[in-house]
Amino acid sequence: MQPMTTFNPDKLCIVHDKLNNVTLEWKPQWASDYRRYAQPYDTPEVIAWDGLLLDGWSSRTASTD
13's torsion region: left (phi>0), alpha (psi -120 to 50) or beta? Predict the structure, then answer.
């Protein structure tokens, strides 16, 4: 997974939620909400947003469904 410091919310990808230990498909339509409300949680690599603690992202093709 890539660090959240390199995350582009406008791109379709998958993100990892550290709080619930799940991987979610990111939807670019959430980008504006992400930009408005996302905040670093304990380090710049962990982002608190919408009740999640995002700690990494990866291109959608890397998913192992």
Answer: beta
**What is the structure's pLDDT at 65?**
43
Residue showing tokens 């992400």: 34
Q: What is the pTM of this model?
A: 0.86
Q: What is the CA radius of gyration of the chain?
A: 11
**Cα 51 from Cα 49, distance rounded (Å):** 6
Here the tokens at position 50 are 């919408």
Closest CA relative to residue 11, chosen from 2, 49, 19, 20: 2
Residue 38 structure tokens: 């996302």
Buried b (16+ CB within 10 A) or exposed e, 11-22: eebbbbbbeeee
CA neighbours closer than 13 Å in the CB half-sphere of residue 22: 6
